[in-house]
Amino acid sequence: MLMGFRRQAGAWIFMCAVLLATPWARAQPLPAPVIEALQRAGIPGHAVGAWVQEAGADRVLVAVNPATPFNPASTMKLLTTGAALDLLGPATTWKTEVYATGVLAGDVLQGDLVIKGGGDPRLVVENLWQFLREIRARGIREIRGNLVLDRSLFAPDNHDPAQFDGDPGRPYNAGADALLFNFKSFTVRFLPDPAQGRVGLAVEPPLATFQVIGPALGAGECGEWRQKLLMTQDARVLQFGGAYPAACGEKTLHVLAWNMSSARYFEIVFRRLWADLGGVLAGAVTEGATPADAWLVAQRESSSLAEVVRDINKFSNNVMARQLLLNMAARFTGQPATVAGGAEVVKTWVVARRLEMPELVIDNGSGLSRDGRIAAGSMARLLQAAFRAPTMPEFMASLPLAGQDGTMRKRLNGHAVAGMAHIKTGYLRDVRAIAGYVLAASGKRYVVVFLINHANAAGAADAQDLLLKWVHEHG
After folding, report:
1. Backbone angles phi, psi at 14, to 5 degrees
2. Would the pTM of this model clear 0.90, i.e. be above it?
């Protein structure tokens, strides 16, 4: 085994010797503890792309396979959010508008109510409830016509939530939508009641004309409880088959409404909230463009882009990143916006900022893709550009803080680098990635990129954490 390690370590040394004979000669190989951790995980040198450089300066500490394209997983969101902050500005917001047709006779609208989506990445049930209260306050109680949903800002996508990993109920598989609402998801809390021999359910958002049926109460250990629930879903029922172990106690599951249209999902929430406010909808829920003669009833302004970017990067929200890419397409290529148009906007921005990413493949902008590609050197140039940009405070603050929040909350706890590293993470099958900034004990800040594509990538966390520690201690 020792001889095997020496042979693999020799391969690393050879690779680094080649590296030092290139224009990247100022750089050093990965630190020995990091190389050893990679060897323990069975990850060869060719499967790694890494870059460490002083932020805002030329000093490079590490460069490994800097020009090799890698799948970056969710670190691709750094490109999407960085471009959006620069192109749109951190104070940018989105408007969702409500129009009416016909006339208002007393509190009865003799016509349709139209809700026009503006691409808001974070329109949730609390926002809709407040919005509907405003509509009621403006005198509308009964809608004699239809509720019309205008989603025309984005081109129809025919998004298949099962395509990526065959698990369509996962909220991260949601598709973008000009009238994206509540991430098109349910939150189900399981409340086991052994005394009654049943499992109660608490479901959000509140729903009308839709039923959620719980599982049987089961015995035994909790274990992989989610795998024991056999979910089926259609436009009227979400049913959990199988058994939920009483030993699990109360747990929460977020479920994408994968087997119903966006219009149907909006309808079952709208009808319930509208009825709770004393409203009546006599007609159906349909889709269509806002008529030219419709009159404005109310409008809602979204959270700022800076807040949206924080949610995207801290919690790696895929559908919000997809929304952002399409919003850039809508702004700069016209409507209806397409994913290809959004990718072209970002690539044009990359060229304009002279970031040199010839290998770049963006796909959907979220990193939830088998096809996305970027090199470690390209990612580092992006991070350097973001560090020098006027939007640097918003960008850096959006990244998870090691040992404290977001997707880095449980990593590096108790180490000196906790709270000193703003790091975006990326996880896919055979992919582990980190990219961001580390504040060293010296007071200098460093750009750090570490991309791994290999069948053993799941074992790479130790090596990545060791690099962050090393940069903090030696940078």
Report:
1. -60, -45
2. yes
2-89+306-474: CATH topology? Beta-lactamase (3.40.710)
Residue whose entry in the numeric block shows the structure tokens 């690539």: 347
pLDDT at 18 over 80: no
pLDDT digits (tens, 9 = 90+) for 153-192: 999 988 999 999 999 999 999 999 999 999 999 999 999 9
C-beta separation of 94 from 118 below 8 A: yes
Q: Which two tokens stand for residue 433?
A: 């990635």
309 CB neighbour count, 10 Å cutoff: 28
Does domain 94-302 sit in CATH 3.50.80.20? yes
What's the CA gap between 437 and 60, in Å, rounded? 14
3-class DSSP string for 386-441? HHHCCCHHHHHHCCCECCCCHHHCCCCCCCCCCCCEEEEEEEECCEEEEEEEEECC
* Burial status of residue 281 (CB atoms within 10 A of its CB: 0-12, 13-18, 19 or more): buried
CA distance 94 to 338: 18
